[in-house]
Amino acid sequence: MTDIPLRILLVEDEEDFRDSCARWLQRKGHIVTALGSGAEAITACEGLQFDVGVFDLNLPGMSGLELLHRIQKDKVDIEVIFLTGQGSIESAVSAMKMGASDYLTKPCSLGDLEHHCLLAHERGKLRKENQQLKEVISRTQPAAQLVGESAAMQAVNKMVQKVAPTDKPVLIQGESGTGKEVVARAIQQSSMLADKPFVTINCAALPEQLVESELFGHLKGSFTSASSDKPGLFEIADGGTLFIDEIGELPPALQPKLLRVLEDGSMRRIGCHKERHVRVRIIAATNRDLQKEVREGRFREDLYYRINVLSLNLPPLRERDGDAQRLIEHFLPSQWHLNPAAHQALTEYHWPGNVRQLINVIQRATILADAQEIMLSDLPTEVINRTDGPLQSRPPVEAVSYPNAVSNSGLNNSGYRSADLPTAKLDDIAKAHVLEVLALENGNKARAARKLGIHRRKLYRLLERFDKDRQSSDSTVES
Ligand SMILES: Nc1ncnc2c1ncn2[C@@H]1O[C@H](COP(=O)(O)OP(=O)(O)OP(=O)(O)O)[C@@H](O)[C@H]1O
């Protein structure tokens, strides 16, 4: 007796064979509906649910293939096995191409028949799990929505549509926070690989020694902490797209390895001699001047030409006429208002940290503001100062202190009202400080990290976390 009783639909016009198959499968514990024609099978599928269908290929009237076609059209969820005579292997192969799970040549042993039913059921379960996982992944990966209708963004959108259909590498260049990852997702979502994996790695956010193992994987024991075999992101992205963020930070020792994958798809896991082959579309991004990196010997010239087959320059937000306004409308929660002075400050500001900074300024303001109305005083000092006078008059970053430095305006140097401090979470204050320093350094992460007294990689990780927190809070609000 089987532990897993299957619901089997057996369609066979040879009565003796049908009866002996049905009796055998029932004796094995399965629930069998045995019928003699396709028409009866279609009626049965309307009222009952089956796990596996066993169809004779040569049924009178409606053939087995026609039956498969009908149930596929009616979206019946069933795994189908065909029974075929010796001479009709070709039809069985066409049935497999149409989506049948398996075929058996008659005469077959009854043991084989049950074994194939169980296998088909397992395959069906895996297929469903695969579909569910894809669904989960596509729901957790935000759809790439590029807000902005400026001429600059229209040109970017046009370029996205042009480069998307090819399988060539794309290099996206632009300042930090301009939306390079969103553009990479937009390219992938408009490409033929839209339903294939989209895997990302930020070379700057990982310690150097980890970048290699993340990208190429490793074998157990190949270094101290390699406690098990691990596939790299190239293998995980196989058949899909790999987005390599901050490619300018790729350690020199890894650059030839990336070049090899780009040239012929070959790679090796750390500690493994076996060569593997992958087919992955690369989209890379950088906020560095890669040509300068090449000139100064930090980035291989041959790799630069390989990844720069198609390139796309993302303009800074200050060069996108009217987009700051659109982004503010997009990211300001519904029911919230901006008072005119705050609105003016936000639309006049030059956004050195680009869209990321704009989003964070709005988020920070909604934490600080009362009654769903953002006032000028809810904005960071640099945004306020932009409306008052030259940027150079902003206070030096070192003057930012927490928690009680209160100025005449009732704001401390960080722009928080002292009365708000008990309600502002420590994380939010830290986030506001990090973003403020980054903005004051015009988005230059190396300088901002130095000012903050943290390693540059730590800053990258913090910025990624801020983005993730925001995306998860956005999806919570939407759901
Ligand atoms: N045009 C846009 N429309 C909507 N959201 C955007 C747009 N551009 C950027 N964003 C959002 O701004 C944030 C920063 O974008 P993203 O991470 O793509 O920038 P980046 O250029 O890759 O930054 P970095 O160089 O620091 O990695 C993300 O939360 C992203 O969703």
Automatic annotation (TrEMBL):
UniProt entry tagged with the keyword Chaperone: no
UniProt-listed SUPFAM superfamilies: CheY-like, Homeodomain-like, P-loop containing nucleoside triphosphate hydrolases
Domain Response regulatory: 7-121
Keyword Signal belongs to the record: no
Keyword vocabulary terms for this entry: ATP-binding, DNA-binding, Nucleotide-binding, Phosphoprotein, Transcription, Transcription regulation
InterPro entries: AAA+_ATPase, AAA_lid_NorR, CheY-like_superfamily, Homeodomain-like_sf, HTH_Fis, P-loop_NTPase, Sig_transdc_resp-reg_receiver, Sigma_54_int
GO molecular function term, any single one: sequence-specific DNA binding
One BP annotation, GO: regulation of DNA-templated transcription
Domain Sigma-54 factor interaction: 146-367
Positions of post-translational 4-aspartylphosphate modification: D56
Top-rank taxon: Bacteria
Annotated Pfam families: AAA_lid_14 (PF25601), HTH_8 (PF02954), Response_reg (PF00072), Sigma54_activat (PF00158)
Protein name: Nitrogen regulation protein NR(I)
